[in-house]
Recover the amino acids of this structure.
């Protein structure tokens, strides 16, 4: 049912700018073209803490957001109204949303928020819609509990990667980077370290889809409230040049005590890779407080 209620969701407004920019890449904008734009609340109110957002470049007014414990919402009018489209599913904890660029009717939703904090919520695997969110089918990875990122091949809507983080409070086998070539009907684990280290990030080069970047994260939560997270250095940043079949670590220029890593590829210059990293250096907030931002212009961090 549509709702006109509003709530602040900054990432969605940011995605709007990204979609508008990519839709008219050939059209040059002046440096002050967006100077008068300001952040505003566009909804939905039930969203709460949110880490999943996706736009549709071919449909400039269509966006999806997924709350960490509030389901998936869709707008067809750039945020004026929102519809909850995931309420009938057995989990409402959303970690990632990915829309297939070659077929915007195909949407993948990963459950389990992937944010390690005292009040986290876990999920039960991955879901797929082939009709723009009107219906859903469960596509496995149920014991992963947390899937914080997805990547879909820009030319093949059935080729998808999932970063599966695993159980937050103990070891489990269903962790690492998984690949499906049939829309999630079956999965192959293509990057794995051990039962304590899960997949936290994955990205496909839009110009060369056989190039894939991924990150592993070794992390464990304790049962108490504060400073309850153990960070290890068993993860790292990796690159595959053969579609995810083999991987090599990327370490040049990065800290040696890496813990959590997030990555992004610049669509206009895919060899430019950005990484935000946390290390095991002690800090006031958590055990992974040593944060940094890195850039590579040749597909390999320097």
């Amino acid at each position: 049912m549509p709702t006109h209620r509003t709530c602040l969701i900054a990432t969605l407004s940011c995605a709007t700018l990204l979609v508008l920019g990519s839709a008219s890449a050939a059209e040059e904008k002046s440096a002050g073209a967006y100077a008068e734009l300001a952040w505003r609340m566009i909804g939905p109110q039930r969203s709460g803490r949110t880490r999943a957002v996706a736009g549709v470049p071919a449909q400039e007014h269509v966006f999806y957001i997924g709350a960490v414990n509030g389901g998936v919402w869709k707008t067809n009018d750039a945020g004026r109204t929102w519809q909850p489209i995931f309420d009938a599913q057995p989990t409402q904890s959303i970690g990632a949303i990915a829309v297939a660029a070659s077929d915007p009717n195909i949407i993948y939703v990963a459950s389990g928020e992937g944010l390690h904090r005292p009040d986290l919520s876990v999920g039960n695997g991955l879901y797929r819609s082939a009709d723009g969110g009107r219906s859903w089918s469960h596509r496995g990875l149920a014991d992963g509990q947390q899937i914080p990122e997805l990547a879909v091949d820009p030319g093949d809507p059935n080729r998808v990667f999932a970063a599966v983080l695993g159980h937050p409070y103990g070891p489990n086998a269903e962790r690492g980077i998984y690949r499906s070539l049939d829309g999630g009907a079956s999965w192959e684990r293509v990057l794995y370290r051990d039962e304590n280290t899960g997949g936290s990030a994955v990205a496909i080069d839009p110009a060369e889809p056989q190039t894939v970047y991924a990150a592993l994260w070794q992390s464990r939560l304790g049962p108490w409230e504060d400073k309850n997270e153990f960070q290890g250095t068993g993860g790292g940043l990796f690159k595959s040049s053969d579609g995810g079949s083999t991987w090599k670590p990327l370490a040049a220029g990065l800290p040696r005590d890496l813990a959590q890593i997030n990555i992004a590829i610049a669509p206009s210059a895919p060899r430019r890779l950005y990484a935000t990293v946390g290390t095991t250096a002690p800090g006031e907030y958590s055990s992974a407080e040593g944060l940094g931002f890195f850039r590579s212009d040749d597909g390999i961090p320097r």
User: Anything to note?
Assistant: Helices lie at 10-23. Residues 1-26, 284-290 have pLDDT under 50 and may be disordered. The CA atoms of residues 88 and 291 lie 39 Å apart. The two ends are 49 Å apart (CA to CA).
